[in-house]
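2024-03-11 09:14:02 DEBUG pipeline.ingest accepted 1 chain
2024-03-11 09:14:02 DEBUG pipeline.ingest length=285
2024-03-11 09:14:03 DEBUG pipeline.predict start
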Amino acid sequence: MAHINRIGQIMTQITSIKGQKEYHSHKNYSRCCCAYKKEQILKPTIEEAVEYLQLYKKYACGISGNNQTEYKRYHYLKDSFDWRTQLIEENGGFGLISPTGKLILPPIFQAVFTQFDAIYSVPDLIPVYDGNAWGLVIPGKEPLLVVDFTYSAIIPERWGNRIFFVQEQETGLWGALQLEGVNSNISRKMSLRYRVQHLTELMPPIADDIYEDELYTECSPTTFWMIKKGDKVGILSDAGYSDIIYDTYECDDEHCTFRLIRNDRKRAHIRSINDPSGKYVKSKL
């Protein structure tokens, strides 16, 4: 993994050449607990994938029942096999299928993003390449182009499928798109399954590079990103971004806030992970 020490913080490279190669490399390993990992080298057959799905429905909640042999088989399949999507090729074009053999994308693209698990479900949007630029499509037998082929690179955020780091072709600068659920106006009495997916610009292309960092919160780490422009830095979260005018920052893990520090100022700006721009948090320390 492409870790780097920047401004006194240990973070993960994302948009650098090395970062783009290694950002999703955790998918090459299988983890059954935080203290154990092994290289994920076994490619499942369709029969093994179907078997795993059947066992997953029974044992995914950790309930073993009375069949210990079946329960151990479930964990063996879960921890030993690579459940990512599989690449298919036809007439020089590339597409994707799931481990069960289900078509995800027809082989009509010059390149496609493959670093996601496809055994349970697939992302709402998948990066694809037409030979000149990257865009985003809704998967299916007839993919629907949502973001035109305009970017030099598109990197899905690795812990979810809602944020996409995108590089503008003309400037080489990085921004971010975010997929959000918006309530449909069909009927307010409808359930949440009628929420409409809406792609918005989380941050315009203004950063030279983007790095992944974490707040060490009680249940699990909370991810945010450092954005860099020249020798200045800022903060990006799924709630927005700060100006890129700071020299360094300090994290308050307990309160999920940051002290954004400028060397030419005596006081730091306090920013929350839920309000990186400071629109609502105006206090200084």
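2024-03-11 09:14:41 DEBUG pipeline.report The radius of gyration is 21 Å.
2024-03-11 09:14:41 DEBUG pipeline.predict end
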